[in-house]
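This section describes the prediction task in plain terms. A model, or a person checking by hand, is given the sequence of a single protein chain and must write out its three-dimensional structure as a string of tokens. No templates, partner chains or ligands are provided. The sample shown here is typical of the held-out split.
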Amino acid sequence: MAGLIKAVIVVERLVWIRDPATSLLKKRSETAFYAASCLMEAKICATAIRNHWQIENCNHHVRDVTFEEDKSRIRTQPLIMARLRSFALNILRHNGAQNIAREPTRIVSFH
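The expected answer:
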């Protein structure tokens, strides 16, 4: 395992969070650390990090929030249901759905 990390990447970013009490935006700074197994230019690192978060925002977040995957009580073979949620998401996107949460309510919640 020694020597696998070739670089540590530090990303500082400004995040705007909506305060639920006032509906106003609050500014917050965050620092994120990433480990890399190879040396690369900053521009390539930035692209890789953005691509990671694009996947998180387009897939995992939708499954967690809209399909309520985190609330699922399925304990027997949960990966099958995870695949079905991804399959449903892919069908919706293939049919032009831009905002899954705003699609018609004929979407069935998988609990």
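For orientation: The CA atoms of residues 67 and 110 lie 7 Å apart.
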